[in-house]
Amino acid sequence: MGQFSVLLVLAGLFTGTLVLLGAQRHTEAAETVTLEYTADFLAREAAQVGMNRVVGTLARSAGAWSSDVAAMNLAHGVSGVHHRGGHENAYEVTVARVTLGTPPAASGAPPCPATAPGALPSQVEVVARGTAAPLTGTETSYTIRAVYEQCYADIGIPPSLRYAAASEDDLTIEDPLRIIGNAHTNEDLEGDTTFSVSGTLSYSAPRPANAPEVDGRASQQPPVELPGVAFPPDGITLQQDGAFTIDQAANPGTAVADGWYGISGKGTVTNPYILFVNGDLAIAGDVRLPGHVRIYVTGDFSMGRDDRLSPLQPGVALIDPRRRSDADIESWVTTQMPEGGTIGVFVGGSVDVLEAPFVAAQIYAGQDLEYQGGPAGMVVGSLVARGRLRLAGRSTIFHTDASTSAYDPAHRTIQPDALALVSHREWAARSSDAEL
Predict the structure, then answer these.
(1) Run of H or E residues at 83
(2) Alpha carbon 230 to chain centroid distance?
(3) What is the 3-state secondary structure (H, E, C) of 206-223?
(4) C-alpha dihedral sign at 183, 230, 267, 256
(5) What pLDDT, in 10s, does the model give residues 342-361?
């Protein structure tokens, strides 16, 4: 009996040892799995950090993509280290493929990702590989392969009309002119120190050795696109051939004398009144065109010292900007022109606005533009020239955004503004494993 008891005790001890050894192996296996999952997580996180970094740069430069993969990798490919919990986990990201599509027409942008028939947005394939520091004696890597496509959007107001003054050729600012807004020239900037600009003042051409006094107040910036104007425009409401004058003298304060545009306003934001003058156009008197109007002029455009052009209702008194702060002027414009600038004037030739007391319009000259303001003169809108632009006088130019009705549809800007994920796959791998 005693011997049998000893055998039972020994058997029990052996069985317990087996149980302990099995439990230990199970624990070690569980720890290995945990470490492998941890390594997968760290490697994936590193890959995702690199992917986000590259996709961000691709989105910001979407308008400058190239089909040259090597050049794209030179510009966007990255490698780095992501730190997590005392571990250094490396990542490397490359551009594997670029397919350049066709931007949508200015009339609108397709949904994103594109589902519209015929839509062909640009696409880029990016591969990110993250590597985790060894936790189990084997190296762990994680790969993410993703395809993104460009999303386009109508950014609204054309860049050319985002300035109080802008020109393709030289910009000259003289006298104590006051500009409330930004001014830019794609060429050289000339002037003196008497004028003021509340916004930015910039130029694109290299500065000459004898740069004028404005050099210390301005900065060099990339050129602004100033597209041409096509004649005749679409949707013409009224066409006048030869020299034409909009003269309000016969019916002051109520409507244009010949009745082509009534006080009630024939133009709306979605259906602006479009006047096409196949010749020169002059403004005479206090011409007020309430509503939304685009005027196209193939020749020259002019206004004199007694002439005004605005969308203001008859009877609205004009503001004297000389003794008003920027905030006062902005408040008056916002109250009297709640829809922004609703008159656009697009001229094929040159523009002369000489001592006109008040102009509230976006004026776009195909050639040179000269503005000579009087002491209480004021422009509300934009003065843009595809030639030289000269601004002078003791007057104020206040920039206000144009309504969508006031700029040429061909000048609408469609550009990439985001990237959308189209497809992706990802997998983990270890030095001794095949791809999953």
Answers:
(1) strand 78-84
(2) 24
(3) CCCCCCCHHHHHCEECCC
(4) positive
(5) 999 999 999 999 988 999 99
